[in-house]
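Researcher: We're teaching a course module on how sequence relates to structure. For the next exercise, students receive a sequence and then see the predicted structure as tokens, so they can try to spot secondary structure elements on their own. Here is the exercise chain.
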Amino acid sequence: MRLGVLDIGSNTVHMLAADIHPGGRPLATASDRTVLRLMRYLTPEGAITESMVARKAATTRV
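Model: And here is the predicted structure for the students to work with:
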């Protein structure tokens, strides 16, 4: 079975895919990281700007 993990942080988006088998260790098959610097796109109230929401969606689209 292949599983994926998506980590969306304040500076990067990191995707990791791994093959897993019962009783075995996960075997990483793909890893990709994109720097987005989310902190630069916050409104004074601390919300994410619309342009960053669109950029994050485009980055995570498969």
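Model: If you want an answer key for the exercise: Helices lie at 50-60. The chain has one domain: 2-60.
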